[in-house]
Every structure is written in structure tokens, then in C-alpha cells.
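Key idea: predict the complex, not the pieces.
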Amino acid sequence: MVSHLMKVEVQKRGFEPNGGILRKRLNLPIFNDVSIGQIGLFLLAIVGIVVAPLALSDGYFQQILQTIAYYSIAAIGLNILVGYQGQVSLGHGALFAIGAYASALLTTSLGISVWLAFALSTAIAALAGFLIGLPTLRARGHFLAMVTIALAIVTFVIAQTWTDLTGGPAGLGGIPRPDWFGTTMGSLRKFRPFGADGPILTGQVLYFWVCAGFLVLAQLLAINLLTGNWGRTVSAVRQSEIAAESVGVSVYRVKLATFTLSAAFAGLAGSLFAHQQEYIVSDTFTFEKSVEFLVFVILGGARSLFGPLIGTAVLVVLPEALKTVSAYGILPSSDLTIQVTLLVLALFGSLGLFVFARQGGGIRSLRFVSGVAVVVGLIGFMLVTPQIVEHYLLVYGVLLILFLITMPTGMAGFLSGFFYFGRKTLSKADWQPRFDARLTGEVENPIVAAPSRDELVINDGRMNFGGVKALDGITLVVKPGTVHGLIGPNGSGKSTLVNIVTGVYAPTGGQIRLGGRRIDGLAPFRIARLGIARTFQNIQLFKDLSVLDNVMMGFSKHRSATFFDQALRTRRFAREEHAFRTRALELLEFLEIRHLAHEEAESLPYGFQRLVEIGRALATSPSILLLDEPAAGINSSELGRLARVVERIRDAGVTVLIIEHHMELVMGVSSRITALDYGQKIAEGIPGDVQRNARVIDAYLGSAEHSFAELRRSKMSKTAE
Amino acid sequence: MDLASIAEMLAQGLPQAIVSGLVYGSIYALVAQGYYVTFSTTDTLNFAQGDFLMIAAMLSFTVLGGLALSGVSLWLALLAAIAVVVVVLALMGIAVERIAIRPLRGIFSFGWILSTVGVAVILRQMAEIIWGREHMRVPSVFGDVPIRLNLGTVQIGILPQEVFILAASLGAMIAVLFFLKKSRLGKAMAAVAFNAPAAALMGINVRHIVVLSYALSSVLAGLAGVLVAPVLFAHAHMGTLPGLKAFAVGIIGGLGNPVGILVVGLALGIVEFVVAIFNASLRDAVTFLILIAILAWRPMGLFDKSGREKV
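Result:
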């Protein structure tokens, strides 16, 4: 799957040849870097929003437009969570309800103005999301889905039964509409505010403009955040939490921020809903409401910027169209032949999608035809089947499963896959390697080491897993500015050592100090911020992100642009982004993989992936770099490059602790070697001595009397891995 | 409300609450065992489990009601209903695995959550279309005369069907656990749960085991549906809450821990009915409040021994 960030990156920075006037970037104080073409599209959207309700002069249509606008806000927020951050909420209906009830109660009971209530109820829903997320998001896995189910049920039960507050099923009425131009928004009274020749307005039109105004703000906020470093970070957390922590990102805080933001969007939508309806009943806020929001996102296109908007528009209009058609009997309703024909069409369409989705390239048009067949068949079937109106949720359910299986990128993904085809190849052509830099010295060393050179001391480090002593009292001192090698047979505790130093595990005993400061037991992201960077034995790249984005994630802990800088795209954010981008490219050049900057990280061969991990770790400006088997899986011709890279990292002032099985490499680059076996240190010294050490030779090859036991053990540890 | 009157209400209501709580708790536990069976083999579960229970209740209404009307003895009708439910629900389980679980591997990490929630919504709507929106009475083979017990000043009433529910669901759970522990198939399932690739290398057909676990899980929900149909009215939305409560039971008890599920199921049933003594409407919320509280305290559930991830 091509990452969105990558696409945006390419479009934003003018990589395309023949940029033209529409692609010209403007250096504005906010919305920095916006192109003239984008401003044009934005103005076009505004014109559409202004004109649409005037063209559809019927109050009923205007209400549908309002509904699309506020449901879209909820869907955009949910997409940030579900699509980008990768957590499911089954309780956004509840947050929507909290926004609606908060707004209704604030305006009816406390007499607060509607405009203020929009803001306050958004904040209240955000607070509710924050409080729910606070305990839940610390755990990995899909606990949010479980807790939000609970939230949905509890909220519904409270709304049903706390009738003094919510009115329960009987409802809460008298919710005011905002006043504007001296008119209550929602009244159908016509007036001409711009003189006798001006357009005729009604309160419904005005309320649509309010809803649409909020939608525009929500969409712009989502675009700015998701195409910037905030979105990069959120996507990175989705793809590898442990790698995100290793560059100093607090996964917990990112998740909490995402869920809170997403809750705020749902709350605003609920508030707009309450003031549209003027009367809300608890039966509206069932568990199904949460499912509806998810369907909007998935059908429109999760992980796409405009998908939620598209999905919501289609799915809000669909039941309304069904009602209209069945109410007016526009189409023949009970003709069995037509119904069966349409169903068969849809069935073949989905079969086609299912088959063609698995094969790339030339059958794109067949996919398109299949997709059209599905949509026409299903929607046609609904239109000619009047009973379906009451059961539109059935249709939602079928569409949800169908889309998940055949078009997981939703309508937006389907359309963009079709229309972006040509453009993507053009950009690819522009990404031909411009550098074939060998490390001959003309590339300046771009590594920035942490200014303080700290000594890493592990004192009596212990780690038990149940009864297994993975580390049994290790004491190790890594001198600043050196390359220190760590060797030992499989299962001797090397990776466990890296994991207790980087905070992945809290050691069972002993102390770890960095420059005198205790770091054992700290969270991984805190240790990363103190200057310890690492790579992973099992590669942990952010696989959907480009190589460049992966390295840019490494700068996370050095960023100073705030959330608001990103939300508004201030100059400060743009400057920072540009500076880090330049440095990331320099690092890639240093690693001799600059020509791969825009490739998807996952698509690279193993050896290159390991280099990208090193680049990402170097971007954190570490004082110590831990390399966990950097040569594993790379071929011999790449070994020389790896050795050069390690040496130059050391030359830049970064201390390196390298775990490696490849003896030639580790003996060549290290000034000191420590050998482990059974979680204990069996030898330490300069490479030559360790190599000749009898216990080390024993551990690797087994002495005569131990050979059988050793063989068995090494077999067992291999199985364990 | 002062303390004395709370104590008085408790003293009056507690014995009844415990009895009713055990009955409904056993149902939650039975449905939750279904979550356990699929979660241990596939790391996925069927969010439509509650609606499978509903479909089973609806089927037992149709079969039991239909046969009873045509003069067949209620016992025979019940056996027929159970037979139909076992077959239909097993097929539904297989279908869900094939349509909503298997194709979604690797589509987001949570495709299965969304698709099975979709299945739940579809089943509810289909049930409304087929059986209508009425709440339907399903006859009990044991009649409707409650058994009354006098414990000093306190009276307890319990329907014979409720005794049957408790006995049958505990029996079914024991049978399932026995099957999983002792039979060849059960051991194969445990092997798949522990390490699917290794099990495959040992000649176990992992595909078949996964399908079997979904069928078994659905049949458990179906059994629960047949059991509760006579005491709850059968209707299209009857499964939503039991399904989600059973899910809460599974999370709290640990989705890998059948005994934990049994204990927590019974305990939560009792808690629900104790709460109902004071506030009937809070009954449905309390399980979920407890779930939120427990997840905040121990995210992996009460009884789960969490493993570490190898990096």
C-alpha cells in the first residue's frame, strides 16, 4: 500500500517536472507551502458550499446537507483514529451523544449561548475521550475497541434511564438554534439580507453554512495534521510501537492525543446534531450509531484524507433517496426480474473485484467495471425494494463486509488508484539516483553526536523470564567514543542486554547508568531521549512510510514546532520540516542510499532496510548507538560498507555497542569485545585476546566433553527463536 | 437511603439475586466460552456471537412453536429444536469464518472486528425482516410454575426452566472443557492455539481446526439461545446485550482462560442482580462499568499471565 505521506511529500516539494503555475508554492505565515492550485480548489469548494443550499431551495434537502456536514466531521475524526493511528473505536456514537447532550443541557438548563455551547460540548466530549483513553491506551492490542463498546452501552443506558437529566426515550426538547442575521437558524422564513435583488435565504441555509464552516475547519485541520509530522508520527506508531519509542516518541501520549482529538470531532458533530434537531431522544444513540460512523469511514476510505467525506455523503444520501423513491413510487417496486438481475450484477461485480484485486497491472479497467457493477447493482436493488428503507442498516452491514474484502481502501482508494496511475509513474521517473556517492571523503560526515559523551555502565544486570535467567549478573562498561563488540552464541543474552538498556524490559535486578544517571526501569522513549539509539535484530521499520520519512521520524525528539504550528502550518513548522528533511537526505547520502529516499521502506532488500534503521537511529543524535546484529541477512559485498559506516559513526563521536555473529566484522571494528554465554560474561578484552580465549571457543564450538550438550542447547535455542 | 434500609433490602433480596445471578451468569459464561475457543486458535472472535444466540432463540421459537402446535410432545419438539439449532449455527459459524474472518487477514489489524460487527448488524436486521419486531414467547418444557423456596423470612422464586438453564449450561461447559483437554481434536486445537505453524508441521490441518473452532463457538451461542428463549422473550435485539456482556466476561476472566471465564461469568451475573435490587436500570450498565474499571487496573484481564514480546 502506497503511503499517503509519501504521495503528499512528492506533490508538496515540487519533485514533479513541469510544475507550472498551479504548483507554485506560496510562503505564507500560516498554511505555509500551500500551492496556488490548492487555493483554487479550496475557493471552488467554498463557492460550492455557498451555492449548494441556494440551488436546492427545499428545506428538506438543506437538512440533508447539514447532516452530511456534521456526520462528516465525526467521520474525519474517526478516520484519524482508525485509519491512521490504527485503533478501533466502537464507541464514537457515545461520544457523539455526549456532545449532543452536553450542548442541549448547556443551552436549555444553563442558558449558555449556542455558539459557546458548540465549543464547550466539543471540549466535554474531548475530555470524556481523554478520561476513557487515560487508563485504556497504556495497554497494547485492541483494548480500545473493548472499552469503547462498554462506553457505548453505559452511555446509552444512562441516556435511557437518567430521565431527570436526559429525558430518556421521551426526549429533551427546546434546544435552541443559533441566531444570525436576526433570524433563528432553522426557520423556513425567507428573507433577503442583501437588498431586494439579493439571494433569498432561510434559516436552514444559514445553519448549513454553519455546519459546513465547521466541516471545512475540521477537514483543513485533518489535512494539515495528517500530511505533516503529526500524521507521520501517528502512522509510525501504528506500524511499530517499539520503533517509535526507540526514537523518543511516547506511544502512549500519541495514542491519547489521537483519541482525544477524535473524540472532540465526534463531540462537535453531536452538538451540531442537537441544534439541528432541537429535540433529541435517547433511542438515537444506540450501539448502531457507532457502527454507522465506522461504515462511513471504511466505505469512504480509511487512511485517506477525503474518504470519510465521500463515504458520509454517499451513505447519508442513500437512505434518504430510498425513502423518497419508495414514498413517491418513482420506480417499479415489486418486479422480481429486475431485483434478481440487479442482485446478480452486484454478485458478479464483487466476484470480479475479489479476483482482480489480487492481480495488479493491466486489469485495472476490469476492476473498475466490477466496482461500478457492484455499486449499480446494490444501489439499484435497494431502490426497487421498498422494504429496504427501514432496514438500511442491513445494507450498511453488507457494504461494510463487501468493502473490507474487496476494496479495503474504500471508494477514495479505488478512485485514486485509478486516477493517480499515470502521475505516480511520472514521479518515479524523477526519482532516478542522482547520487552514486562512494564514501571517498567528499561527502561530509553528517552525523551529529550528542554533545555530552556519556559512559554506559551496566552493573550486575539481571533479567529473569520466569525461571530462565536470560541475564545472570552482567557487568559491562562501554567507554565513550569506542566501538564495543558483544558476542556470544544464540540465546546467550545479547539481545536481552540491548532490551534492558533501551528500556524494552525493566531489568529484574542491577543498575544501568548513562553518564552516572540511573536509567534502568525508565520507559523506552525516555531512554531514547537521553541519547541511546538502537536498531533491531528483527527489523522494525515503519514499513508503509518512505525511507525518507523513516529517517525523519528519527528527529522526533528534536522537534520544537507545537501542535498548533502543525495545525496551522506556520513558517516555524515549515522551516523545521525543511531543515530535518535536508539532514535526513544527508544521512541517507552518507549511508549510500540516497537514491532510495522515496521508496517504500518495506520494498527494500534486507541489507538496505538495516541501513535505513541505522539512519533513523543516527537522526536522534545519540551519544550511544546499539546495533543489534546489523549484518544478519546481508550479503558479503554489503559487509564492507557496513564496516565503513560503523567506523565513521565512531569518528563522529558516537559510541557504538555492536552485537554481531559475523566475527570478521565485529573483530575488525571493535576496540573491545565482551563475550556472553548463559547470561554471564565469560570473557572481555581486545579482539585478539577474546578470539583466543578458551571459554569463548568452548562456547562457540563446544569442547570435547561438552559437545553433545552444547549441540543440544544450540539446537534448542534455535527452535526458541 | 440510610445504611439500615440498605442492609434490609440486601437481606431481603440477596438470596434471590444470587440464584438469578447464577442462572444468567452461566449463560454469559457459556457464550464467552465460545469467544475463548476461537480466540485461542485464531486471535479473533465473533462480535456477532450475541446475535447468533438471538438467531438460535428465534429458530427454537419457530421449531418448538410449530411442532407444539401440530401436537408433537414438547420434549420431542425441544430435541428437534436443539438439533436444528446445532446444525444451522455450526453452518453459520463456518460461514462467518469463511466470509468475515479469513479474507480479512492482513487488512488493517482489526478488519475482523469491523466485519463481525457488520455480521451482527446484518443478522439483527434480517431477524426483523423474517420474524418481525414483536417479542415472542417460547414455551418451556417444564411449564411456567415457579418453584418457591422459603428461607425463614425470605422467599425465593425460581422457574424450572432456570434450573434447567443452570444445569445445562454448566454441563455443556464441562463437556466442552473435557473435549478440549482429552480428545484428539481438542488436543489438536490446543496445539494450534499454542503454535499454529508448529502444529501444521506435526500434520495437523490448521484450516480445519480453525473452522471447527468457529463452528463449536457458534454452537455454544446457539445452545445458550435455546436455553434462554423461554425465559427471555425472543426478539431481534435480544442478543446484543448478552453477547456484549459475555464479551466483558471473556475480557475480565481472560480470553485464554476457560475457568476464569466460568468464575467471572457467574460472579458478574450475581453482581448484576444485586445491583438490580437497588436500581433495576443500572443492571445493564454495571458489567461494563466493572469492565472499564478492571481494564484500567489490569489491562490483560484478571487472570491472564501476560507474555512478553520478543524483539
